[in-house]
Design a protein that fits this description.
Blueprint (H helix, E strand, L loop, with lengths): L2 E6 L7 E5 L2 H12 L7 E7 L12 E2 L5 E3 L10 H6 L4 E2 L2 E3 L2 E2 L5 E6 L3
Length: about 120
């Protein structure tokens, strides 16, 4: 069963929703929200360049199969949500190679119910 989590990036204002379908990843996300998990807390995934109903306001989302959590990542996949949105046509090339997106300042905010 899918679970949905909202997270923020650099300025804490933007919100982005991810879908998790893997029980272990859902449990990990819930441990982050409870404060039990303090190391691997940032979100990583591969961009799919199309909107989804559970993530309104964005023309892309993260492929649920590719989502994971990290402590440290390489700089080449770091960007803000808005920067990705503004440069979506360039994403998956020199910008965010392989469509990998790992906002270093990402932080889960809460679990949300879809729709």
């Amino acid at each position: 069963m899918a679970a949905y989590f909202r997270f923020t990036d650099t300025n804490g204002q933007s919100r982005f929703v991810i879908e998790l379908n893997d029980d272990a990843k859902i449990a990990h996300a819930r441990r982050i929200l409870s404060g039990e998990e303090t190391r691997q807390i940032h979100v990583h995934g591969r961009i799919l360049k199309r909107p989804v109903p559970y993530n309104p306001g964005w023309n892309y989302h993260l492929d649920p199969i590719t989502i994971s959590f990290f402590e440290v990542a390489i700089e080449v996949c770091d960007a803000s949500f808005q920067y990705v949105e503004d440069h979506l046509d360039e994403a998956c090339g020199a910008f965010l190679p392989g469509c990998h997106f790992c906002p270093w300042s990402s932080r889960l905010v809460d679990e949300v119910k879809p729709g």
